[in-house]
Amino acid sequence: MFDAASLALFVTATLALLLAPGPAVLYIVARSLEQGRMAGFISTLGVGLGSLVHVLFAAFGLSALLMQSVLAFSFIKYLGAAYLIYLGIKTLSRKAEVSKVQPLKVMSYGQIFRQGIVVNILNPKTALFFLAFLPQFVNPARGSVILQILTLGMIFVIMAIMSDSMYAVIAGTARQLLSGNILAARVQKYLAGTIYIALGITTAFSGSYKSK
């Protein structure tokens, strides 16, 4: 279904993106600091399930689009690449600010899990990101678009859960790095911005949309 080069590029891009923590990581860190590592791990699973919901929407939505028009599907992929470049430019141009880990209300593990799901499902930026990111590595000539996106999405979610779990485990250390450290904020800004731009340019000109 995937050639080694495309899969390696996807895994590398995913790993690079996960190294630049965002709001979900700050939520997980805050929950870990408030109620311990188990609470942080459970919130990680909730966030991961929320991401999986967006993957399902992307898979079936883009598959339906492909059935209507291959040209429209290709247009969405190029539009997604442009959006990733836009995210990179926007990230690089904004002022680096320290992220504050806010205290959270104590909840049961069930409530924490459900909140993690809701936090991610209701974030429109997450949906837009998956619609822009996953199609860059899909080639209709390789078979089912749904299966390709679901496979890539599962890889992304599993890697994200592993990465986020690491933050939950070392939340005490991560707190100082993520909250109040201007150098860390600057590094995160330039890392994330460069990754978005590089990914958008690479996928736009790699010819990954073409049939073999």
Largest sheet: none
Categorize the overall geometry.
globular
Q: Helix/strand-derived class?
A: mainly alpha
Give average pLDDT, whole number. Answer: 76
Proportion of residues in helical segments: over 70%
What does this structure look like?
The protein is built from nine helices and no strands. It is mainly α. It has one domain. 36% of the residues are buried. The C terminus is likely disordered.
Tags for this model:
212 residues, mainly alpha, 77% helix, globular, disordered C terminus
What would a concise description of this structure say?
This protein has helices spanning 4-18, 23-35, 37-68, 70-93, 109-121, 124-133, 145-169, 171-178, 182-205. It has 212 residues and is mainly α.
Summarize the SSE layout with pairings:
Elements: H1 4-18, H2 23-35, H3 37-68, H4 70-93, H5 109-121, H6 124-133, H7 145-169, H8 171-178, H9 182-205
